[in-house]
Amino acid sequence: MPDVSYKLIHEMDGIYGDIARRARAELGVSSFGMQIMSLPPSWPGYPDHDHGPAATDPGQEEVYLPLEGDGMLLADGHEYALRPGVAVRVGPEQRRRIVPGERGLRFVALGGIPGAFAAPAWTEIGAAPPVPASR
């Protein structure tokens, strides 16, 4: 039997009204974090966040891979267009926010701690979603 995991995205465990899908846990990935995010058009709810020492998953750098739609990644007054065909990496302590465009935005969020990986508890199927740290 091949060592392959296959799952339809819409069948993956979802949180926040299916805005986030727990792709890492559903596929059995153990070496990096991975969620699939589906943000509604012009939705203002994606948190301004970082993965600094006070975060749920500190030290994690992230890569965003847009699949559908469009939007912007905002960081320190700079704007980065998100659309299919683009890949963006953000360092752990960099505050960032994603704002979906008029068509919404679906993207893969990959995360890992350089040199190590331990799955955060909230990414497990059926676990309570994290509460964003307030500043």
**Helix percentage:** under 10%
Number of domains: 2
Low-pLDDT residue spans: none
Global mean pLDDT: 94
Integer-rounded radius of gyration = 14 Å
Helix-strand category: mainly beta
What is the β-strand count? 7
| First-to-last CA distance | 49 Å
Element string (H = helix, E = strand): EEHEEEEE
Shape: globular
Number of H- or I-type helical stretches: 1
Portion in strands: 35-45%
Care to give the gist of this entry?
The protein is 4% helix and 37% strand. By secondary structure, it is mainly β.
Structure in words:
This protein folds into 2 domains: 1-37, no CATH class; 39-97, no CATH class. The chain is built from 1 helix and 7 strands. With 135 residues, the protein is mainly β. Strands 1, 2, 3, 4, 5, 6 and 7 form a 7-stranded antiparallel β-sheet that branches. The longest helix has 5 residues, at 23-27.
List strands and helices in order, with pairings.
Blueprint: E1 14-15, E2 20-21, H1 23-27, E3 33-39, E4 61-75, E5 78-82, E6 88-90, E7 97-112
Antiparallel strand pairs: 1-2, 2-3, 3-7, 4-5, 4-6, 4-7
What are the main properties of this structure?
mainly beta, single chain, 135 residues, 2 domains, 4% helix, 1 helix
